[in-house]
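Human: Not sure, check this?
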Amino acid sequence: MRLSIAKRYGLASVVLWSTAATAFKLALAGSGPCMVVLSASVVSLAFLAVLCASTGARLTWRIMLEALPRGVLNPFVYYLVLLEAYDRLPAQIAMVVNYLWPVVLVLLHAALGRRRLRSGSLLAVLISFGGVAVLALLGPGDGGRADAAGLALALASTVIWACYWILGLGRGGSEAPESVRLLAGFAWGVLFLAAYAAVTGSFAIPDARSAIAGVWIGLFEMGLTYVLWSRALSLAKEPAEVGSLVYLTPFLSLCFIALVLGEEIRPATLPGLVLVLAGIAVQRRVEARGRTRGGSEPQPSDVPGDRHEPRTP
C-alpha cells in the first residue's frame, strides 16, 4: 500500500526523533550535560533563525517577552534535567520514563483545578507509573540497582515538560507563527545556558564525537524535525492519520540504542514501556469519550511544536 505524503513526512519525523536517546548518550560520552544542551541549543537557534528569515517571519520584543517563561523551561531547565538523567541512567530507562509526560500532564491539570481526575484517568496514571515501577525494581543499573537520583531527574523532566505544555496552552498575545515563538524561546534558553555554564565553570570544548552528536540533537531533536512534523500535519486529512505514528518512536529508539550504543535491552524495559504507553492510550481514550460527550478541553495533541507528541501532539 502506497503511503500518503503526510505519512511519509510523519515517518521521517518519527525516525529522526527515535535517534534522540542515542544521540544524548553519544554526546554525553565526551561532554557534560550543560555543554551538550548549550551546543545543541545554539545549533537549533541558528536553524530556527534561518527558517524564520526564509519565511519572512519577524521576531519582535513583544514575542521575546511572551516567550521568556517558556524559554526558561525549554531548553534551559528541561534539557539540563533530562540530560542529567541520561548521564546517570541507561538510555533505555531514561527514554521510557520520559514518555510519562502526557500522564503527568493529567495530574497537573487536576492539581491546578483545570479538570476533575476521572476514574479512567486515574487508571491511566496507575498503569503508566506501574511501568516506571517495573523499570525501577526489575531493570537495575550496572551497579545492581537503579540510580534513584537518575530516576528522580527523569521523572522531574516529565513534570517540567508538562508545565511547558500548559504554558503553551494558555499563551495569549500576538499571533506569531510557532517557528518565531520557538526562536524566541531558544534565544532565551541559549542566554540562560551560557550564563549557567559561566557561573558553574561548565565551559569545555567537546570531543569530535560529542560535537557531532550535539549538532545532530540541535537539528533533529529540536529543530528540523519540527518542520517535518508540522508539514505532515498540514498535509494530513485529519490528525489521527499521522498522530498514531508517534507510538513507533520508543520502539525504534530501543533499536538504535541496542545497535548504536550496544546497550543490551533489559528484560524489564519492554514490559515497562508497554505499560507506560498503555496508560497513555487509556488516557487518550478517556479524553476522546469526554469530547464526544461535549467536552472541549484542549489536549496535548492540540498544541503545535511539542516534542514526541503529534502536534494536533
